[in-house]
Design goal:
Growth Hormone, Chain: A, 84% helix, single chain, mainly alpha
Length: 376
């Protein structure tokens, strides 16, 4: 979980880095977004590696890389070091996520294997939430917040590393490790209609997640005029925290029902966020983020639950990779574009354009889902 705590910890700290190193506003968005690029590349390349060489080596490697990123953040003196640290952090998380989820499944009781998948998912969102809240509190309580945060993360990462080193292996080694490094991305014809109907919703909820992690902490000061690192951290906390709870609550809900609930929640949450920005109400924006967290917690897992059973075993890695490309592409790229728009049209119009796009995407997905139900 230290992998995801570290990613969440950077949410409010990026605003602090921006002020400390005096880099341009659009670079704040770039520093956030490059995490998604590192994560996606590592997940596509190393996602299946643990099936061949074992879970422990991949987890150990990911934690060592994470340790390097923490040290880089602790000693950063300019924006280039922050961006490099974010890329390395994304690579660490992307490489280790599949192995970590597999371990959770393999250690779960035979009758509760689905619990392992859920735990793997909530570790991601829960870590992002707690990391953001912890850093926000630290920034308000101590001038040495950066040191407190990253020394804590280094200790947790070393502890996780020791656990991984001395734990038992949960999978058998099989040939094909080098071949597994070649990314496989495919959407078989049998799953194409479902994929196309789910993809806009997946993109929308990940864009809203990007807003919570990449835009909201800075908006607390720049849009709402509140000079509080805690509220910046809380703005990054609320959506992944709600998503964590929803992932647990919806674990046994039918995937199609969860998808529709998630789409409606994402739509309502986006509208509330736009309303909060126009009204100058941080409270309304946070309510919108909480509702969008329901959308994230419901939609993303539902999309995978709908798509994976449609394809044969050897096609599953390809379709999961396709979903990840949509998700992390939406998590990173629009944030960079929004950063460029800020310099052209201002922050509030650019945030409204960004969030308005999620409204369009959810409506497209809702219409597509309704058509699929009519055909069925």
């Amino acid at each position: 979980m230290s992998l995801y705590l570290g990613a969440g910890a950077l949410t409010p700290l990026l605003v602090d880095y921006k002020e400390r190193f005096a880099f341009a506003p659009e670079m704040l968005n770039v520093a956030f977004a490059v995490y998604a690029a590192g994560f996606l590349i590592a997940a596509l390349v190393f996602g299946s590696l643990s099936d061949h060489i074992g879970r422990r080596p991949v987890l150990i490697g990911g934690l060592i890389v994470q340790l390097a990123s923490n040290v880089l953040f602790l000693t950063a003196t300019d924006v280039s070091a922050v961006i490099a640290g974010r890329i390395i952090q994304g690579i660490a998380s992307g490489a280790a996520t599949a192995a970590f989820t597999a371990v959770m499944v393999e250690l779960s009781p035979e009758k509760h294997k689905r619990l392992g998948t859920v735990l793997g998912s909530v570790s991601l969102t829960g870590g992002l939430a707690l990391g953001s809240l912890f850093t926000g509190l630290a920034l308000d309580l101590t001038p040495a917040a950066k040191t407190v945060v990253f020394v804590t993360l280094i200790i947790l990462t070393v502890a996780g590393l020791l656990v991984a080193i001395f734990s038992r292996e949960t999978s058998q080694r099989i040939p094909g490790a080098l071949r597994s490094l070649i990314p496989r991305v495919s959407v078989p014809a049998v799953a194409r209609a479902e994929f196309l109907s789910a993809a806009p919703a997946v993109a929308a909820v990940w864009m809203l997640a990007g807003l919570s992690g990449g835009l909201a902490p800075n908006m607390v000061r720049s849009v709402f005029g509140i000079d509080s690192a805690f509220w910046g951290g809380f703005a990054g906390f609320v959506a992944p925290a709600v998503a964590t709870v929803i992932s647990l609550v919806f674990a046994k809900l039918a995937a199609r029902q969860a998808m529709l609930i998630g789409i409606y929640a994402a739509l309502l949450g986006a509208v509330a966020i736009i309303g909060g920005v126009f009204a100058g109400s941080l409270a309304l924006m946070i309510v919108g983020q909480a509702i969008s967290g329901i959308g994230f917690g419901a939609c993303f897992s539902a999309a995978l639950q709908i798509l994976i059973p449609l394809v044969s075993t050897h096609q599953r890695a390809g379709i999961v990779a396709a979903v990840y490309i949509v998700a992390y592409g939406a998590f990173g790229l629009p944030i960079v574009v929004e950063g460029q728009l800020v310099t052209l049209i201002g922050e509030i119009p650019s945030v409204v354009c960004y969030t308005g796009l999620t409204v369009v995407l959810t409506l497209i997905s809702l219409i597509a889902q309704m058509r699929l139900r009519q055909r069925a």
